[in-house]
Amino acid sequence: MGIFSKFFNALKKTKDSLAAKISSIFVGELDDDFYEELEYILISSDMGAEASSEIIAEVKSYAKKHKIKSAEEFKKVLRQVMIDSLSSMEQEDEFPMAITFIGVNGVGKTTSIGKLAHYYKSQGKSVLMIAGDTFRAAASDQLTEWSKRAGVRIVKYTEGADPGAVVFDGLSSAISKNDDVVLIDTAGRLHNKSNLMDELKKISNVEHKVWKDRTTKNYIVLDATTGQNALSQVKAFDESVGIDGIVLTKLDGTAKGGIVFAIAKEYHIPVVFVGTGEGLDDMVPFDAKEFVENII
Question: What is the pTM of this model?
């Protein structure tokens, strides 16, 4: 399937929910009551109060100025305002690039790394995985399976090894082999939150020492089905190590895909990839236009 089809399938629950609710309020004038109901609908899709309020204000102003009356005209305006609110977040890849994947356990970090290894390889890039989660039992074994499925190299140590040492050797190997993309797995939990963040900072220091002037990024992996809880995860990790992009998984399992807007409004961090299913190739670059057109 193409990206449009993947977005369509992944966002079906969100679209069905929003479409029915929005259509139900087009029964009269575009008055204050209408906009209040629309704002409630957007908030209920996890767009967040701030993002929803800002979108409503822009749409209301345009609709009033241009005397918008019909539902189709209004939806076109709503779509464009929503696209504009996300488009500024889009970014380009710069190679060679090392991406460190962070986030709590259970959100799909390892799976996302495997799918992204496949994605970048399909783009003609040479890819290396680094098994930096040496705390969780079988973490490196899971990543090894994904490396086999994607057909890419992996650097790993035994359980309990120093993650910084694994990353050091992995990045050194990537430099010697002229790899384009390095995907680094990390622990989602240690003995406590402070311990975890300190470990991530150590990995970051190793990256800057070895990878030097090459591109480094921190991507947080979020489970879309957790809704507003995802925001607290972004806050915690961004304050500790900084976040450059968001990988949103399990988008097909929720009717609340609006969380993308809440993240963009509150943190100005771009969503870079979205998981659209269970398959190896079900991870696609985020596209604001495709995203919005598939929910409104």
Answer: 0.90
